[in-house]
Specification:
The protein is α+β, with helices and mostly antiparallel strands. The chain has helices spanning 16-23, 94-106, 132-138, 150-164, 180-200, 221-236, 289-293, 302-305, 330-343, 348-364, 384-393, 397-405, 422-452, 476-484, and strands at 32-37, 41-51, 54-59, 64-68, 73-74, 111-114, 117-120, 168-172, 237-238, 246-247, 250-257, 263-271, 369-371, 378-380, 408-411, 414-417, 461-467. The strands form six sheets. It has a five-stranded antiparallel beta sheet with strand order 4-3-2-1-5. The longest helix is centred in the C-terminal third of the chain and has 31 residues, at 422-452. The relative contact order is 0.10. Bound molecules: adenosine-5'-triphosphate (ATP). ATP binds at residues 174-181. One of its GO terms (biological process) is actin filament organization. Residues 81-485 form the Myosin motor domain.
Protein backbone atom coordinates (compact mmCIF):
# COMPACT_ATOMS: atom_id res chain seq x y z
CA UNK A 1 0.00 0.00 0.00
CA UNK A 2 1.42 3.40 -0.91
CA UNK A 3 0.45 4.86 2.49
CA UNK A 4 3.80 3.59 3.63
CA UNK A 5 5.55 6.05 1.34
CA UNK A 6 3.84 8.99 3.01
CA UNK A 7 6.30 10.86 5.25
CA UNK A 8 3.72 10.73 8.04
CA UNK A 9 3.17 6.98 8.02
CA UNK A 10 6.20 6.14 10.18
CA UNK A 11 4.56 8.22 12.94
CA UNK A 12 1.34 6.27 12.62
CA UNK A 13 2.19 2.58 12.37
CA UNK A 14 5.22 0.33 12.83
CA UNK A 15 6.45 -1.66 9.85
CA UNK A 16 5.84 -5.38 9.70
CA UNK A 17 9.54 -6.01 10.45
CA UNK A 18 9.49 -3.72 13.47
CA UNK A 19 6.37 -5.42 14.77
CA UNK A 20 7.92 -8.86 14.37
CA UNK A 21 10.98 -7.69 16.24
CA UNK A 22 8.83 -6.29 19.08
CA UNK A 23 6.85 -9.48 19.31
CA UNK A 24 9.74 -11.90 19.32
CA UNK A 25 10.92 -11.10 22.84
CA UNK A 26 11.04 -14.06 25.26
CA UNK A 27 8.14 -14.13 27.68
CA UNK A 28 6.87 -16.25 30.53
CA UNK A 29 3.45 -15.28 31.88
CA UNK A 30 4.30 -16.71 35.32
CA UNK A 31 7.61 -14.91 35.67
CA UNK A 32 7.51 -11.60 33.78
CA UNK A 33 6.06 -8.77 35.88
CA UNK A 34 6.08 -5.03 36.37
CA UNK A 35 7.32 -3.72 39.70
CA UNK A 36 6.99 -0.18 41.09
CA UNK A 37 9.97 2.13 40.71
CA UNK A 38 10.37 5.58 42.19
CA UNK A 39 11.84 7.14 39.07
CA UNK A 40 10.31 5.21 36.21
CA UNK A 41 6.89 4.46 37.66
CA UNK A 42 7.21 0.77 36.83
CA UNK A 43 10.08 -1.36 35.58
CA UNK A 44 10.12 -4.81 34.03
CA UNK A 45 11.41 -7.72 36.05
CA UNK A 46 11.46 -11.51 36.23
CA UNK A 47 10.40 -13.41 39.32
CA UNK A 48 13.25 -15.60 40.47
CA UNK A 49 11.71 -17.02 43.61
CA UNK A 50 8.72 -16.56 45.89
CA UNK A 51 8.81 -16.83 49.66
CA UNK A 52 5.59 -16.30 51.53
CA UNK A 53 4.30 -12.87 50.66
CA UNK A 54 7.50 -11.72 48.92
CA UNK A 55 8.82 -12.12 45.38
CA UNK A 56 12.49 -11.85 44.50
CA UNK A 57 12.55 -10.08 41.15
CA UNK A 58 15.54 -9.65 38.82
CA UNK A 59 15.50 -6.36 36.91
CA UNK A 60 17.62 -4.98 34.05
CA UNK A 61 21.33 -5.14 34.89
CA UNK A 62 20.80 -8.26 37.00
CA UNK A 63 19.88 -6.47 40.24
CA UNK A 64 17.62 -8.47 42.55
CA UNK A 65 14.77 -6.75 44.34
CA UNK A 66 12.49 -8.03 47.02
CA UNK A 67 8.93 -6.92 46.23
CA UNK A 68 5.61 -7.66 47.94
CA UNK A 69 3.55 -10.03 45.80
CA UNK A 70 0.60 -7.67 45.61
CA UNK A 71 2.81 -4.90 44.21
CA UNK A 72 3.87 -6.99 41.21
CA UNK A 73 1.63 -6.40 38.22
CA UNK A 74 1.13 -8.88 35.38
CA UNK A 75 2.96 -8.26 32.13
CA UNK A 76 1.23 -8.72 28.78
CA UNK A 77 2.57 -11.15 26.18
CA UNK A 78 4.85 -9.51 23.57
CA UNK A 79 2.18 -9.78 20.87
CA UNK A 80 0.65 -6.75 22.58
CA UNK A 81 3.85 -4.71 22.47
CA UNK A 82 2.98 -1.16 21.27
CA UNK A 83 -0.61 -2.22 20.74
CA UNK A 84 -2.79 0.31 18.94
CA UNK A 85 -5.82 -0.34 21.14
CA UNK A 86 -5.19 -0.92 24.82
CA UNK A 87 -8.62 -2.40 25.37
CA UNK A 88 -7.17 -5.54 23.71
CA UNK A 89 -4.60 -6.03 26.47
CA UNK A 90 -4.96 -9.24 28.43
CA UNK A 91 -3.89 -7.41 31.60
CA UNK A 92 -5.24 -3.90 31.75
CA UNK A 93 -3.25 -2.68 34.76
CA UNK A 94 -1.56 0.70 35.35
CA UNK A 95 1.90 -0.56 34.50
CA UNK A 96 0.83 -2.10 31.17
CA UNK A 97 -1.03 1.02 30.12
CA UNK A 98 1.89 3.27 31.04
CA UNK A 99 4.38 0.95 29.37
CA UNK A 100 2.36 0.80 26.17
CA UNK A 101 1.95 4.56 25.97
CA UNK A 102 5.60 5.13 26.76
CA UNK A 103 6.84 2.54 24.28
CA UNK A 104 4.68 4.02 21.53
CA UNK A 105 5.73 7.56 22.42
CA UNK A 106 9.36 6.43 22.23
CA UNK A 107 8.70 5.71 18.54
CA UNK A 108 6.73 8.97 18.17
CA UNK A 109 3.44 7.12 17.83
CA UNK A 110 1.47 9.70 19.77
CA UNK A 111 -2.06 8.36 19.28
CA UNK A 112 -3.28 5.19 21.02
CA UNK A 113 -6.82 3.94 21.49
CA UNK A 114 -8.24 2.75 24.71
CA UNK A 115 -11.60 1.49 23.53
CA UNK A 116 -13.64 4.49 22.51
CA UNK A 117 -11.04 6.92 23.85
CA UNK A 118 -8.09 8.13 21.89
CA UNK A 119 -5.13 8.97 24.14
CA UNK A 120 -2.71 11.55 22.76
CA UNK A 121 0.71 12.43 24.11
CA UNK A 122 2.08 15.83 23.21
CA UNK A 123 5.08 15.31 20.89
CA UNK A 124 6.29 18.91 21.32
CA UNK A 125 7.43 18.83 17.73
CA UNK A 126 5.67 19.10 14.40
CA UNK A 127 5.04 15.66 12.93
CA UNK A 128 3.87 15.28 9.31
CA UNK A 129 0.68 13.53 10.40
CA UNK A 130 -1.81 16.31 9.82
CA UNK A 131 -1.12 16.91 6.13
CA UNK A 132 -3.73 16.80 3.38
CA UNK A 133 -2.39 13.47 2.22
CA UNK A 134 -2.79 11.97 5.69
CA UNK A 135 -6.27 13.48 6.02
CA UNK A 136 -7.23 11.89 2.70
CA UNK A 137 -6.01 8.50 3.92
CA UNK A 138 -8.52 8.59 6.74
CA UNK A 139 -11.52 9.89 4.83
CA UNK A 140 -14.23 7.30 4.57
CA UNK A 141 -12.21 4.57 6.32
CA UNK A 142 -13.34 2.51 9.26
CA UNK A 143 -11.48 3.08 12.48
CA UNK A 144 -10.23 -0.50 12.56
CA UNK A 145 -8.74 -0.22 9.06
CA UNK A 146 -6.34 2.54 9.99
CA UNK A 147 -3.82 3.34 12.74
CA UNK A 148 -5.03 5.39 15.73
CA UNK A 149 -5.42 9.04 14.82
CA UNK A 150 -7.63 11.92 15.70
CA UNK A 151 -8.72 11.95 12.06
CA UNK A 152 -10.06 8.43 12.40
CA UNK A 153 -12.11 9.45 15.45
CA UNK A 154 -13.33 12.53 13.59
CA UNK A 155 -14.20 10.54 10.50
CA UNK A 156 -16.15 8.08 12.59
CA UNK A 157 -18.14 10.92 14.13
CA UNK A 158 -18.78 12.30 10.65
CA UNK A 159 -20.01 8.98 9.28
CA UNK A 160 -22.16 8.27 12.34
CA UNK A 161 -23.74 11.67 11.94
CA UNK A 162 -24.55 11.10 8.28
CA UNK A 163 -25.60 7.49 8.56
CA UNK A 164 -27.48 7.54 11.86
CA UNK A 165 -28.82 11.09 11.48
CA UNK A 166 -27.65 11.97 14.96
CA UNK A 167 -25.62 14.84 16.38
CA UNK A 168 -22.18 13.81 17.62
CA UNK A 169 -19.86 15.22 20.26
CA UNK A 170 -16.18 14.89 20.97
CA UNK A 171 -14.60 15.75 24.30
CA UNK A 172 -10.98 16.87 24.21
CA UNK A 173 -9.60 17.14 27.67
CA UNK A 174 -6.33 17.04 29.58
CA UNK A 175 -4.21 19.26 31.75
CA UNK A 176 -2.71 22.54 30.62
CA UNK A 177 -0.18 22.01 27.83
CA UNK A 178 -1.46 18.51 27.04
CA UNK A 179 -2.37 19.51 23.49
CA UNK A 180 -6.15 20.05 23.67
CA UNK A 181 -6.24 23.16 21.56
CA UNK A 182 -3.78 21.83 18.98
CA UNK A 183 -5.91 18.72 18.59
CA UNK A 184 -9.15 20.68 18.51
CA UNK A 185 -7.69 22.74 15.67
CA UNK A 186 -6.79 19.57 13.79
CA UNK A 187 -10.31 18.21 14.24
CA UNK A 188 -11.80 21.43 12.89
CA UNK A 189 -9.34 21.49 9.99
CA UNK A 190 -10.24 17.87 9.24
CA UNK A 191 -13.95 18.62 9.17
CA UNK A 192 -13.27 21.65 7.04
CA UNK A 193 -11.29 19.45 4.62
CA UNK A 194 -13.96 16.74 4.63
CA UNK A 195 -16.69 19.34 4.20
CA UNK A 196 -14.84 20.89 1.29
CA UNK A 197 -14.06 17.54 -0.36
CA UNK A 198 -17.70 16.73 0.10
CA UNK A 199 -18.62 19.77 -1.93
CA UNK A 200 -16.06 18.90 -4.58
CA UNK A 201 -16.53 15.23 -5.16
CA UNK A 202 -17.28 13.48 -1.97
CA UNK A 203 -16.12 10.75 0.27
CA UNK A 204 -16.65 7.13 -0.65
CA UNK A 205 -19.93 5.83 0.70
CA UNK A 206 -21.57 9.18 1.38
CA UNK A 207 -24.05 10.77 -1.09
CA UNK A 208 -22.85 13.96 -2.72
CA UNK A 209 -24.67 17.21 -3.15
CA UNK A 210 -25.38 18.11 -6.76
CA UNK A 211 -24.30 21.62 -7.69
CA UNK A 212 -24.19 23.41 -11.04
CA UNK A 213 -22.67 26.55 -9.56
CA UNK A 214 -19.40 27.58 -11.19
CA UNK A 215 -16.43 27.34 -8.80
CA UNK A 216 -14.96 30.66 -7.80
CA UNK A 217 -11.95 31.48 -5.65
CA UNK A 218 -13.36 33.02 -2.52
CA UNK A 219 -13.02 32.82 1.23
CA UNK A 220 -14.92 29.69 2.15
CA UNK A 221 -16.76 28.97 5.35
CA UNK A 222 -14.15 26.31 6.04
CA UNK A 223 -11.42 28.99 5.85
CA UNK A 224 -13.41 31.21 8.16
CA UNK A 225 -13.88 28.46 10.73
CA UNK A 226 -10.13 27.85 10.79
CA UNK A 227 -9.46 31.59 10.94
CA UNK A 228 -11.46 32.08 14.14
CA UNK A 229 -8.47 30.48 15.89
CA UNK A 230 -5.89 33.26 15.54
CA UNK A 231 -8.47 35.80 16.72
CA UNK A 232 -9.73 33.81 19.70
CA UNK A 233 -6.16 32.91 20.63
CA UNK A 234 -4.94 36.51 20.45
CA UNK A 235 -7.65 37.60 22.88
CA UNK A 236 -8.12 34.43 24.92
CA UNK A 237 -4.65 32.83 25.12
CA UNK A 238 -1.61 33.80 27.10
CA UNK A 239 1.79 32.53 28.13
CA UNK A 240 1.69 30.56 31.37
CA UNK A 241 4.48 28.66 33.07
CA UNK A 242 3.11 25.44 31.61
CA UNK A 243 2.25 26.54 28.10
CA UNK A 244 3.37 29.48 25.95
CA UNK A 245 -0.01 29.54 24.25
CA UNK A 246 -2.40 28.52 26.97
CA UNK A 247 -6.12 28.90 26.29
CA UNK A 248 -7.55 30.72 29.25
CA UNK A 249 -11.14 29.80 28.36
CA UNK A 250 -13.02 26.65 27.49
CA UNK A 251 -14.90 26.33 24.25
CA UNK A 252 -17.56 24.21 22.61
CA UNK A 253 -17.48 24.40 18.84
CA UNK A 254 -20.43 23.06 16.91
CA UNK A 255 -19.96 22.40 13.22
CA UNK A 256 -23.24 22.04 11.42
CA UNK A 257 -23.41 19.97 8.26
CA UNK A 258 -25.96 19.66 5.48
CA UNK A 259 -27.47 16.23 4.97
CA UNK A 260 -24.87 15.70 2.24
CA UNK A 261 -22.01 16.29 4.70
CA UNK A 262 -21.10 19.76 3.51
CA UNK A 263 -20.15 22.23 6.25
CA UNK A 264 -23.24 24.41 6.64
CA UNK A 265 -22.32 26.64 9.55
CA UNK A 266 -20.43 26.78 12.81
CA UNK A 267 -20.88 28.31 16.20
CA UNK A 268 -18.77 28.66 19.30
CA UNK A 269 -19.68 28.83 22.95
CA UNK A 270 -17.09 29.91 25.46
CA UNK A 271 -16.74 29.31 29.17
CA UNK A 272 -14.86 30.74 32.11
CA UNK A 273 -12.48 33.25 30.58
CA UNK A 274 -9.75 33.96 33.13
CA UNK A 275 -10.43 37.61 33.76
CA UNK A 276 -7.94 38.13 36.55
CA UNK A 277 -5.10 37.86 34.01
CA UNK A 278 -6.12 41.22 32.49
CA UNK A 279 -4.76 43.00 35.52
CA UNK A 280 -2.42 40.52 37.17
CA UNK A 281 0.20 38.04 35.99
CA UNK A 282 2.11 35.48 38.03
CA UNK A 283 5.90 35.20 37.63
CA UNK A 284 6.87 33.66 34.28
CA UNK A 285 3.51 34.52 32.71
CA UNK A 286 2.02 37.17 30.44
CA UNK A 287 -1.29 38.88 29.94
CA UNK A 288 -3.36 38.01 26.82
CA UNK A 289 -1.31 38.00 23.60
CA UNK A 290 -3.24 40.87 22.01
CA UNK A 291 -1.80 43.42 24.46
CA UNK A 292 1.72 42.71 23.22
CA UNK A 293 0.63 42.33 19.60
CA UNK A 294 -0.79 45.85 19.33
CA UNK A 295 2.49 47.13 20.69
CA UNK A 296 4.57 45.16 18.13
CA UNK A 297 4.58 47.71 15.27
CA UNK A 298 3.05 45.30 12.79
CA UNK A 299 0.85 48.29 11.97
CA UNK A 300 3.47 51.07 12.11
CA UNK A 301 1.03 53.84 13.08
CA UNK A 302 -0.97 51.84 15.58
CA UNK A 303 0.92 52.75 18.74
CA UNK A 304 0.52 56.43 17.90
CA UNK A 305 -3.20 56.00 17.21
CA UNK A 306 -3.58 54.20 20.52
CA UNK A 307 -1.43 56.76 22.33
CA UNK A 308 0.92 54.05 23.57
CA UNK A 309 4.12 56.07 23.89
CA UNK A 310 5.62 54.60 27.06
CA UNK A 311 7.97 51.61 27.11
CA UNK A 312 5.99 48.37 27.36
CA UNK A 313 7.39 47.66 30.82
CA UNK A 314 5.68 50.80 32.12
CA UNK A 315 2.14 49.54 31.49
CA UNK A 316 1.50 48.09 34.92
CA UNK A 317 -1.58 45.97 34.10
CA UNK A 318 0.32 43.88 31.58
CA UNK A 319 3.94 44.13 32.66
CA UNK A 320 4.09 42.39 36.01
CA UNK A 321 6.06 39.41 34.71
CA UNK A 322 7.18 38.46 31.19
CA UNK A 323 6.96 40.77 28.17
CA UNK A 324 8.21 38.37 25.50
CA UNK A 325 7.86 34.68 24.72
CA UNK A 326 10.91 32.78 23.51
CA UNK A 327 10.53 31.87 19.86
CA UNK A 328 7.36 33.90 19.37
CA UNK A 329 7.37 37.08 17.30
CA UNK A 330 4.46 39.25 18.42
CA UNK A 331 4.70 41.26 15.21
CA UNK A 332 4.24 38.19 13.06
CA UNK A 333 1.46 36.99 15.33
CA UNK A 334 -0.29 40.32 15.07
CA UNK A 335 -0.11 39.94 11.29
CA UNK A 336 -1.95 36.63 11.59
CA UNK A 337 -4.54 38.04 13.98
CA UNK A 338 -5.16 41.04 11.75
CA UNK A 339 -5.41 38.92 8.62
CA UNK A 340 -7.82 36.55 10.34
CA UNK A 341 -10.06 39.44 11.39
CA UNK A 342 -10.19 40.54 7.77
CA UNK A 343 -10.95 37.01 6.55
CA UNK A 344 -13.75 36.95 9.09
CA UNK A 345 -14.97 40.13 7.41
CA UNK A 346 -14.72 42.44 10.39
CA UNK A 347 -14.89 46.09 9.37
CA UNK A 348 -11.86 48.33 9.88
CA UNK A 349 -13.82 50.14 12.56
CA UNK A 350 -14.58 46.97 14.45
CA UNK A 351 -10.94 45.97 14.39
CA UNK A 352 -9.60 49.34 15.54
CA UNK A 353 -12.30 49.57 18.22
CA UNK A 354 -11.05 46.30 19.71
CA UNK A 355 -7.49 47.61 19.67
CA UNK A 356 -8.66 50.83 21.32
CA UNK A 357 -10.36 48.96 24.14
CA UNK A 358 -7.25 46.87 24.71
CA UNK A 359 -5.06 50.00 24.73
CA UNK A 360 -7.53 51.74 27.05
CA UNK A 361 -6.93 49.02 29.61
CA UNK A 362 -3.21 49.54 29.37
CA UNK A 363 -3.73 53.26 30.07
CA UNK A 364 -6.21 52.51 32.82
CA UNK A 365 -3.67 50.44 34.68
CA UNK A 366 -1.46 53.51 34.94
CA UNK A 367 -4.07 55.86 36.37
CA UNK A 368 -2.95 57.22 39.73
CA UNK A 369 -5.11 58.24 42.67
CA UNK A 370 -4.34 59.65 46.07
CA UNK A 371 -6.26 59.91 49.26
CA UNK A 372 -7.59 63.31 50.32
CA UNK A 373 -6.08 64.21 53.68
CA UNK A 374 -8.34 63.26 56.59
CA UNK A 375 -11.11 62.08 54.25
CA UNK A 376 -12.31 58.67 53.09
CA UNK A 377 -12.24 60.02 49.56
CA UNK A 378 -9.72 59.48 46.77
CA UNK A 379 -8.87 61.97 44.06
CA UNK A 380 -6.87 61.75 40.80
CA UNK A 381 -3.13 62.12 41.06
CA UNK A 382 -2.69 63.51 37.55
CA UNK A 383 -5.16 62.83 34.74
CA UNK A 384 -2.90 62.15 31.77
CA UNK A 385 -3.47 58.38 31.71
CA UNK A 386 -7.16 58.80 32.50
CA UNK A 387 -7.40 61.16 29.51
CA UNK A 388 -5.81 58.57 27.29
CA UNK A 389 -8.00 55.74 28.57
CA UNK A 390 -11.15 57.86 28.21
CA UNK A 391 -10.20 58.92 24.69
CA UNK A 392 -9.74 55.28 23.72
CA UNK A 393 -13.10 54.33 25.21
CA UNK A 394 -14.66 57.40 23.59
CA UNK A 395 -15.99 58.78 26.88
CA UNK A 396 -15.49 62.02 28.76
CA UNK A 397 -12.55 61.90 31.21
CA UNK A 398 -14.39 63.69 34.02
CA UNK A 399 -17.40 61.42 33.72
CA UNK A 400 -15.18 58.35 33.77
CA UNK A 401 -13.26 59.58 36.81
CA UNK A 402 -16.48 60.48 38.58
CA UNK A 403 -17.69 56.91 38.07
CA UNK A 404 -14.58 55.65 39.85
CA UNK A 405 -14.36 58.30 42.56
CA UNK A 406 -18.01 58.94 43.38
CA UNK A 407 -20.08 56.22 41.69
CA UNK A 408 -23.82 56.57 41.61
CA UNK A 409 -25.41 53.80 43.60
CA UNK A 410 -28.99 53.05 44.43
CA UNK A 411 -29.94 53.15 48.10
CA UNK A 412 -33.55 52.07 48.56
CA UNK A 413 -35.44 54.16 46.06
CA UNK A 414 -32.85 56.88 45.79
CA UNK A 415 -29.70 57.33 43.76
CA UNK A 416 -26.74 58.74 45.68
CA UNK A 417 -23.09 59.41 44.89
CA UNK A 418 -20.94 57.22 47.10
CA UNK A 419 -17.48 58.35 48.16
CA UNK A 420 -14.61 55.94 47.45
CA UNK A 421 -11.25 55.71 49.16
CA UNK A 422 -8.02 54.99 47.31
CA UNK A 423 -8.24 51.21 47.73
CA UNK A 424 -11.82 51.13 46.59
CA UNK A 425 -10.95 53.14 43.47
CA UNK A 426 -8.05 50.84 42.79
CA UNK A 427 -10.35 47.80 42.97
CA UNK A 428 -13.00 49.52 40.87
CA UNK A 429 -10.49 50.25 38.09
CA UNK A 430 -9.35 46.61 38.09
CA UNK A 431 -12.92 45.34 38.13
CA UNK A 432 -13.82 47.65 35.27
CA UNK A 433 -10.89 46.42 33.16
CA UNK A 434 -11.75 42.78 33.84
CA UNK A 435 -15.45 43.32 33.16
CA UNK A 436 -14.80 45.20 29.94
CA UNK A 437 -12.32 42.65 28.69
CA UNK A 438 -14.73 39.84 29.36
CA UNK A 439 -17.51 41.67 27.52
CA UNK A 440 -15.24 42.44 24.62
CA UNK A 441 -14.29 38.76 24.45
CA UNK A 442 -17.94 37.83 24.51
CA UNK A 443 -18.54 40.27 21.67
CA UNK A 444 -15.63 38.78 19.69
CA UNK A 445 -17.06 35.27 20.02
CA UNK A 446 -20.49 36.58 19.05
CA UNK A 447 -18.96 38.35 16.06
CA UNK A 448 -17.23 35.13 14.96
CA UNK A 449 -20.56 33.34 15.31
CA UNK A 450 -22.31 35.92 13.15
CA UNK A 451 -19.71 35.45 10.43
CA UNK A 452 -19.89 31.69 10.64
CA UNK A 453 -23.68 31.64 10.63
CA UNK A 454 -24.25 30.93 6.96
CA UNK A 455 -27.81 31.34 5.88
CA UNK A 456 -27.54 29.61 2.49
CA UNK A 457 -27.01 25.96 3.35
CA UNK A 458 -29.67 24.07 5.30
CA UNK A 459 -28.34 22.46 8.48
CA UNK A 460 -29.08 18.88 9.23
CA UNK A 461 -26.91 17.76 12.16
CA UNK A 462 -23.85 18.94 14.02
CA UNK A 463 -20.62 17.60 15.47
CA UNK A 464 -19.66 19.33 18.68
CA UNK A 465 -16.08 19.57 19.92
CA UNK A 466 -15.60 20.48 23.56
CA UNK A 467 -12.11 21.78 24.32
CA UNK A 468 -11.94 22.28 28.05
CA UNK A 469 -9.27 21.76 30.69
CA UNK A 470 -9.56 18.85 33.03
CA UNK A 471 -9.09 19.45 36.71
CA UNK A 472 -5.48 20.07 37.55
CA UNK A 473 -4.77 19.23 41.13
CA UNK A 474 -2.28 22.05 41.49
CA UNK A 475 -4.59 24.63 40.08
CA UNK A 476 -7.81 24.00 41.97
CA UNK A 477 -7.63 27.32 43.80
CA UNK A 478 -6.93 29.18 40.56
CA UNK A 479 -9.78 27.36 38.84
CA UNK A 480 -12.17 28.24 41.63
CA UNK A 481 -11.03 31.83 41.36
CA UNK A 482 -11.58 31.78 37.62
CA UNK A 483 -15.02 30.30 38.06
CA UNK A 484 -16.00 32.85 40.70
CA UNK A 485 -14.24 35.85 39.15
N1 LIG B 1 0.02 17.33 18.14
C1 LIG B 1 0.96 18.24 18.38
N2 LIG B 1 2.01 18.41 17.53
C2 LIG B 1 2.98 19.31 17.78
N3 LIG B 1 3.00 20.12 18.86
C3 LIG B 1 1.98 20.01 19.73
C4 LIG B 1 0.90 19.07 19.54
N4 LIG B 1 0.06 19.19 20.58
C5 LIG B 1 0.56 20.16 21.34
N5 LIG B 1 1.71 20.65 20.85
C6 LIG B 1 2.58 21.72 21.44
O1 LIG B 1 2.23 21.87 22.79
C7 LIG B 1 1.80 23.20 23.07
C8 LIG B 1 0.64 23.14 24.05
O2 LIG B 1 -0.48 22.56 23.42
P1 LIG B 1 -1.95 23.16 23.60
O3 LIG B 1 -1.91 24.65 23.62
O4 LIG B 1 -2.84 22.50 22.60
O5 LIG B 1 -2.28 22.64 25.05
P2 LIG B 1 -3.66 22.77 25.83
O6 LIG B 1 -3.96 21.41 26.37
O7 LIG B 1 -4.72 23.37 24.97
O8 LIG B 1 -3.22 23.70 27.00
P3 LIG B 1 -4.06 24.87 27.77
O9 LIG B 1 -5.09 24.17 28.59
O10 LIG B 1 -2.99 25.52 28.58
O11 LIG B 1 -4.61 25.74 26.70
C9 LIG B 1 1.42 23.78 21.72
O12 LIG B 1 1.62 25.16 21.68
C10 LIG B 1 2.35 23.06 20.78
O13 LIG B 1 3.61 23.71 20.74
Amino acid sequence: MDYENDPGWQYLRRTREQMLQDQSKPYDSKKNVWIPDEEEGYIAGEIKKTEGNMNTVVVAGGTEKSVKKELCQEMNPPKFEKTEDMSNLTFLNDSSVLHNLRARYGCMLIYTYSGLFCVVINPYKRLPIYTDSVARMFMGKRRTEMPPHLFAVSDEAFRNMLQNHENQSMLITGESGAGKTENTKKVIAYFAAVGASQAEGGIPGVPTEKSDKPKEKKVTLEDQIVQTNPVLEAFGNAKTVRNNNSSRFGKFIRIHFSKYGKVASCDIEHYLLEKSRVIRQAPGERCYHIFYQIYSDFIPTLKKTLRLDKPLKDYWFIAQAELKIDGVDDKEEHGLTDEAMHILKWTDKEIIDCYRIVAAMMHMGNMKFKQRPREEQAEPDGTEDADRAASMYGVDTDEMLKAFLRPRVRVGNEWVNKGQNQDQVFWAVGAMAKGLYSRMFHWIVMKCNLTLDQKGIPRDHFIGVLDIAGFEIFDVIQQLRTALD
